[in-house]
Amino acid sequence: MQVGAYAVYDPGTFFVKGVTTYSWYDGDSSRHINFAGLGTGTSFVANPTGDPDVNMWTAGLHGGARLSMGGNSVVTPYLNYDYVDAKLKSFSETGGNGAELTVDNNHSKHSFLTGGVKWATQMGGVVPEVNLGYRYRFGNSRTRIHEWFTPDPENDFDIISASQKRGTFLAGLSVGGKLGPVDVRIGYEGEFNGDVTSHSGNFKFVLPLAVTRLRRRRLRRRRRLRRHLRRRRPAPTAR
């Protein structure tokens, strides 16, 4: 589940946006261990399972300015700061025939500064947008997970992630428009550096609540009209 809040100050050319979210996830984990066939006497097989839970808090402050380039084109330079705090709660595996792991409480905290520029224009009923930027990552370049084989905390160890370069280039392309009362947008986003290449796509549609309000108003008018007509009907005469 996730809850969040945001605030926007957007008087016109300049804008500032703040957003925060808190999420909690209930996961399930499984490992398959099979040493059979590796040599004489190696026949160990186990399937330990666990219940990892994660809580995550994020916060962001985004700002920029919309600059008209004439016609229907707008250029928007922007600067964003984002912070992520993820916590993996402690849990112990079961069903491992002696190979169960106990994972300790672990934290991963990162912050990001992103700067770039967006260009958007309108071509009839279609609005394409191009986004180019650069993101710099602060804090530790690695993430550590502390654990041990149950029940032997004296012989604990760390699993350390691969290091990532702090800077990445960003590129995005999206196309949006209206399909009846629905706003539709299809987009692509990419992240590139010497260590990471990431590609993602998204499809978003938004139905404005004003349509629902308009229908409610029409229904209220119809109900009032029916009540008015019922009041004006003559009373039945007695026989």
Features:
four-stranded antiparallel β-sheet; ten-stranded antiparallel β-sheet; 18 strands; mainly beta
Structural features, described:
This protein is mostly beta strands. 10% of the residues lie in helices and 57% in strands. The chain contains one helix and 18 strands. Strands 1, 2, 7, 8, 9, 12, 13, 16, 17 and 18 form a ten-stranded antiparallel beta sheet that branches. Strands 10-11-14-15 form a four-stranded antiparallel beta sheet, with no helix packed on it. A hairpin with a 5-residue loop joins strand 12 and strand 13. The chain is extended, with a radius of gyration of 28 Å. The N and C termini lie far apart (67 Å). The relative contact order is 0.10.
Net shape = extended
Distance between the termini: 67 Å
Strand count, sense and barrel status of the largest sheet are: 10 strands, antiparallel
Oligomer: single chain
The whole-angstrom Rg is 28 Å
Note the beta-strand portion: over 45%
Q: TL;DR of this structure?
A:
This protein has 239 residues and is mainly beta. The chain contains one helix and 18 strands.
Task: Give the SSE layout.
Elements lengths: L1 E8 L4 E13 L2 E2 L2 E2 L10 E2 L2 E2 L2 E13 L1 E2 L5 E15 L2 E2 L8 E3 L2 E15 L5 E13 L5 E6 L7 E4 L6 E13 L2 E11 L4 E10 L2 H24 L7
Antiparallel strand pairs: 1-2, 2-7, 3-6, 4-5, 7-9, 8-9, 9-12, 10-11, 11-14, 12-13, 13-16, 14-15, 16-17, 17-18
